[in-house]
Write a structure and sequence with these properties.
This protein is α+β, with helices and mostly antiparallel strands. It folds into 3 domains: about 180 residues, PAS domain (Beta-Lactamase, 2-Layer Sandwich), CATH 3.30.450; about 100 residues, Signal transduction histidine kinase, dimerisation/phosphotransfer (DHp) domain (Helix Hairpins); about 150 residues, Histidine kinase-like ATPase, C-terminal domain (Heat Shock Protein 90, 2-Layer Sandwich), CATH 3.30.565. Helices cover about 55% and strands about 20% of the residues. It has 11 helices and 14 strands. The strands form 4 sheets. A 5-stranded antiparallel β-sheet has the order 4-3-7-6-5. The protein has a 5-stranded mixed β-sheet with strand order 9-11-12-14-13, with helices on one face. Strands 1-2 form a two-stranded antiparallel ribbon. Keywords: Cell membrane, Kinase, Membrane, Phosphoprotein, Transferase, Transmembrane, Transmembrane helix, Two-component regulatory system. InterPro entries: HAMP_dom (IPR003660), HATPase_C_sf (IPR036890), HATPase_dom (IPR003594), His_kinase_dom (IPR005467), HisK_dim/P_dom (IPR003661), HisK_dim/P_sf (IPR036097), Sensor-like_sf (IPR029151), Sig_transdc_His_kin-like_C (IPR004358). It is a multi-pass membrane protein. Its EC number is 2.7.13.3. This is histidine kinase.
Length: about 475
């Protein structure tokens, strides 16, 4: 199981269990809470009604007194109320009054008059000066439908102290059942939203963490495979610190290996020019004719230029290879770069008696490093000049190709031998110039290939059917 899935499942399990128990507590507390609120309301109402019923109970006219008449009129009323989306169209109260012995002398439904209620908890406790209440089945034997009874003492209105009876106010618990069910549904619905929102937050957090860890993993695999890869994006957390530590370690390890490779390559390439310089210098120490002395001195200067060119090219190549990714990226126009290149190369073209023909569109926008691209295109043009015979025309073209722009430089030289086509982009591999027979450092085309890679493009070389070679550099538009 992947780390991201483990993190998400762990987060969701913790939040889900916590939400489940919280919802269960809330749902479990709704029913008793609503009933307690109803009981408190019944207590208030029972005491109010007990005061109102006291005169008729003392006078012995509970059945046909003002209290009974007013209560009957009230129970015939239609409240026409809408309580929390539930309509209320009738009065649910039931009122019973007992005398001081607990015998029912009034029942708002007219059912239990004369019954001895002195053993019922509400009447029993009230007659003894305590708070009396009970909950009993509405229909004997049916525990699913219960009625709450709350009693209040009826005192003599003359002295306000003598207990002359008990008034019990009853209300079916079913009357508040819709409110309890609605509250429970609301809690469950909101709890479901809470769990869903928590799951979404957990998913986003897991994705964020897994994305950072996955990026480090991909970076480590690329480094292990020797692929050039940009460092992990900076982050202000432990993952960011780990990424920076990995990048620092990579730089140190690759730097050591690169220095070794660099020194080996440079040493190898310097042996031949140094041997030629040493041989010429030894000969110059002997008496020589002036012509021979001039020839050996020119050879030393030529080999010195070769060494300088090799070192300069190797340094440029080392700079782009060490980065592994493009350091500076900006919007630029390949057509503008090509025009600048053609203008700068004018004197060299004139000296070599060559002509440069440009075929450029209005614009060729790309994203990249103008300095590196100018150097890369300059290397391609240098090769075209070196391999073209006097009086030839070099073709410079830019056109749209796939999702990018392709720049080609075609010369009219002898072309590239088949055996060398696969090796021209190797470091230090070069072909003899047709005019002088000299070889270059063999680092120009590897530099072009590295610049193309840094820009997400590619470079290649092929022979033209009409003769000569054609070097191409393709760059994506973005």
């Amino acid at each position: 199981m992947r780390l991201g899935l483990k993190l998400f499942l762990g987060f969701f399990l913790i939040v889900g269990i916590a939400a489940f128990f919280v919802m269960r507590v809330f749902v479990g507390e709704v029913k008793p809470g609503v009933r307690q609120a109803m009981e408190s309301t019944l207590v208030d109402a029972a005491n109010v009604l007990a005061v109102m019923a006291a005169p008729d109970l003392k006078a012995g006219r509970m059945a046909d007194g003002d209290f009974a008449a007013q209560l009957a009129a009230a129970q015939r009323r239609d409240p026409g109320a809408m309580v929390w989306r539930f309509p209320k169209r009738s009065i649910d109260y039931r009122v019973t009054v007992t005398d001081a012995r607990g015998i029912v002398v009034y029942d708002s439904r007219g059912q239990d008059v004369g019954r001895d209620n002195s053993r019922w908890n509400d009447v029993y406790r009230t007659l003894r000066g305590q708070y009396g209440a009970r909950s009993s089945p509405e229909v004997p034997g049916d525990e699913t439908r219960t009625v709450m009874h709350v009693a209040a003492p009826v005192r003599d209105p003359g002295d306000g102290r003598t207990l002359i009876g008990v008034l019990t106010l009853a209300q079916p618990n079913d009357s508040i059942a819709p409110f309890i069910a609605a509250s429970q549904r609301a809690i469950v619905a909101r709890g479901a939203w809470l769990i869903g929102l928590s799951a979404l937050i957990g998913l986003l957090m897991t994705w964020w963490l897994a994305r950072g860890i996955g990026g480090l993993s991909r970076y480590a695999r690329a480094v292990s495979a020797g692929e050039p890869v940009p460092p992990p994006k900076p982050r202000r957390d432990e993952i960011g610190e780990l990424g920076q530590a990995l990048e620092t370690m990579r730089r140190k390890l690759q730097g050591k290996a690169y220095v070794e490779q660099y020194v080996q390559s440079l040493t190898h390439e310097m042996k031949s020019p140094l041997a030629a310089i040493r041989g010429a210098a030894e000969l110059l120490q002997e008496p020589l004719p002036e012509a021979e002395r001039q020839r050996f001195a020119a050879n030393i200067a030529q080999q010195e230029r070769r060494l300088t060119e090799t070192i300069d090219q190797l340094l440029r190549l080392a700079e782009v290879e060490q980065h592994g990714w493009l350091q500076h990226r900006a919007a630029l126009d390949l057509c503008v770069l090509c025009r600048q290149l053609a203008e700068e190369a004018g004197p060299r073209l004139q000296a070599a008696r060559l002509r440069l023909e440009c075929g450029l569109p209005g614009r060729a926008p790309v994203q990249g490093d103008a300095f590196l691209l100018r150097q890369a295109l300059g290397n391609l043009l240098d090769n075209a000049i070196a391999f073209s015979p006097a009086g030839a025309t070099i073709l410079l073209r830019v056109w749209r190709q796939d999702a990018g722009w392709e720049v080609t430089l075609a010369d009219a030289g002898p072309g590239v031998p088949d055996y060398a086509l696969e090796r021209v982009f190797e470091r230090f591999y070069s072909l003899a110039r047709p005019n002088s027979g000299q070889r270059s450092s063999g680092l120009g085309l590897p530099f072009v290939a590295e610049v193309a890679r840094l820009h997400g493009g590619r470079a290649w070389l092929r022979n033209r059917a009409a003769g000569g070679a054609e070097a191409s550099l393709w760059l994506p538009t973005t």
